[in-house]
Amino acid sequence: MIRILLFTSLFFTTLAFSMPQTEQNSTTSITEEQNNLTAQTDILEEQNSSSDQVDSLDKAQKKEELLARKANLDKEILDNNIWSKIYSNYHIYIEFKKDKAVLDNQINILDDKYKRTVKENEALEILKNKKSVLIGKLQLLEEYGTDPFKKFLTPPVIEEVPTVGNPIAVISAISYQEKLKSDQEEYHQRYESLQTVMEKMKEKEKVVEEIFLLDANKTKYGKELLDIKDKIKTFAPVLDIFKTTQNVHTKKIDEIKLNLQSDIKRELEKTMNLGAIILFFILFLLFVKYLVRRYMSDNDRFYTINKALNATFFTALVFILLFAYIENVSYLVTILGFASAGIAIAMKDWFMSIMGWLTIMFGGAIHVGDRVKFVRDGVEYVGDIVDISLLRMTMHEDVTLTTSMVNRRAGRIIFIPNNFIFTDMIANYSHAGLKTVWDGIDVVVTFDSDIHKASSIAKEVAKKYSKGYTDITRKQINKLRSQYSMKNTNVEPRVFTLIEPYGMKISIWYLTNSYATLTLRSTISAEIISRMQEEESILLAFPTQSIYVDKDVRKPKVEDPTLFDDEI
Predict the structure, then answer these.
(1) How far apart are CA 31 and CA 22, in angstroms?
(2) I need a labelling partner for 179 at 20 to 30 A (CA). Which of 4, 225, 242, 387 fits?
(3) Cα separation, 231 vs 201, whole angstroms
(4) Residue-wise pLDDT tens digits, 530-557
């Protein structure tokens, strides 16, 4: 009895899936599936021959359990629905292709007719419209036609592997490793999702087969069973390809990770060794500076040695880094050669400052400790050079005659770019060991004062206080005559008497220390004024005007002598 019911259900199932005569050639695969289903039904019938004794109540209960299990499987499959959606689009595309083939066949039949009726023309027009709509749908689903799973089977693109050649590149390499790991996990999750879908579909196939045997309506579950078998048949080769691709991709990533790990380890060891060398040089530099500072009392020499040690350490550090991290030094030189023109234009002031530094260091025009006068935009600055760096000189402004008479402020730190030595005037008060300068004091006395005595006093005082500087200057100038053409070597104090509107100006010039000009000037000025005030024949002049009332201040007229004056 069961055999008759099974054959009857298969007969109705075949009728439900049968197609017109024009479609029989395209449904051969469905007929084969039905035959396979019949054979499997026979096998299941033989295996379950004992179920004839099961009453209808037990069958209904078992069917409910199977339906509940099927619903759970459907839900679990939908959780990984990306593959189901792709397959659904692929299946729709195949169905549309079949429908288009049917339409093409029908259109060809009507086109081949010599004479068509009005209804046939209308039918032909309807078929062509359907074909046009169907072609539009096929174009939308075209990517699912040839290889629908290609996008998800293709592994993530492996970008160019970074070269670990310096400590900074280690960070990039670690970041690259993390990206590879993330891509690999994401690709593996795709594979696991497909594998899960495949397992659930096979499990669903077994459940539907059991429901098919228990259910009286074979048509519904027969169609569903054929759909599941078709899905499994489609996904099986996809899973195999995915597995092979994943294995190849995993091996490639593992190889890259091993190489990167080796490069990172090598670079870290190299960095640690280089850091140890640099640390040794730093400690050695500090030790040498400590010894120099402890056993050298001359601050100028200590400053020079300190700058030399710093320059030597910096140069050694640059060469160490160059030879450690630049494999092809000639390549670097070539790049710098091409880039030097653009860099020189863009950084003109910097390069000029560096050239000024070279001129200062090798020319010897200015040294640390020299007193200089710098003029910029009409403003004068006088002070001592306390530092000379690669780009600028640092000057400490002192209290001098310039600050007293012009600026009225002092103590500032002035930064002078080294390139100013090419464009601005910089006067050195202590060049080549010549640390004395000429300074002058002006005193104005009245016209009726004893000019000779006033000049003598001024010269005597100036000579008294500048004698030591005069002797030092005389010796230093004799040394400089071999280096410079110096014709005037007179170093004794000089006194000049000049006529001014309000009296006679006595200008006294003497040699003084360039670092203490204002101090000696103050001392000599006070001494000269004190000495002149003691003399009654010397009166200090200042702007005055005399007014005479009832008195003729004109000089009497001198009469010309006559011939008889001698006789009288």
Answers:
(1) 15
(2) 242
(3) 8
(4) 999 888 888 888 776 666 666 665 555 5
